[in-house]
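Hello again,

I reread your note about wanting to compare the complex against the isolated chains. To keep things tidy I'm splitting this into two emails, and this first one only covers the full assembly. Below are the input lines as submitted, including protein chains and any nucleic acid or small-molecule components. They are followed by the predicted structure of everything together. The single-chain runs will come separately.
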Amino acid sequence: MSLLAAVHYDPAVAVSKSCAAALAMTAFDTTNLRLGFTIPASGKVYAKIGCAIHGGAGFPQILLGILQGSTIITRRAAFGGLYGTAAATTILAVQAEFTLGGLTPGAVNWDAAYDVETLMASSAVKYGGPNDATANNAFGGISFEVWGLD
Amino acid sequence: MVANSLLGVDNRDLINTLSGPFISPSSMNSNLGSVTFTVPNSGKVKAIARLVLRHGGTSAVAFLIGILEGTKVVARKAAMAGPLFATQAANAMAGIEVDFTITGLTPGASLTWQVAFSGETGTDLNTKLQKQGLDDAIADNAAGNNSLEIWGIN
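Full-complex prediction:
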């Protein structure tokens, strides 16, 4: 097993990806959350995406997944757990893992992506934000990694 | 996903009174565990921190867990949590975990990384990232260990 590519993107200015309307699979950021790598000869990889949802006292129902251009490589309901009550200031960490086989070996560009199945107008997928003592303005990084499997 | 070789681990579980910082708005701070390791030739590592949030109070809090190298923030992220087994109460605990895959480090460098947190919401003097505790039959006085693992990646 070897790491093919990874990014942990945590910009100083927070980014908000709306969950206010139903949405088909959409890349988060084709500049900063795109991984270019070579699928190994086995045709097998493991991938993981982690991010946070914040802003409402309820949570939208989203899928996390991977796009190659407009092709959906995979997608899955994200899992996460609250460590307290759900409030507008609660940060819910979510992640999804994928083990994929039968891929065509060779160079690809994969984008971390999400969709919205059930909207929550006040909630969004968020990442980044300043590192300071001001409340409720940072959400940490969004991560996307791909590992080669034998 | 665990990577190829364990470079270092801090796995603290002292039989002692509960200790740990409470949550309030802050920049990344506090040493919740540290590991000194040598960066492998690949320049890639995975860091995994496992902690305990202990609800001494009932206020909602929000925080990020990260890695500090001195005062430099290596990475930070909202932590995955095991859902509360019951309602949020003054004696509820939740296991939390965060992992980072870090690339582009200088091979051969000796680094000391600390687990840190930043409070984002809520000030509750009783809700803390706690560790250790007594091994006895007295209720609600132990939280178990914190750990930081640093794995080398090919």
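For quick reference: Chain A touches chain B through 40 residues (CB under 8 Å).

B.
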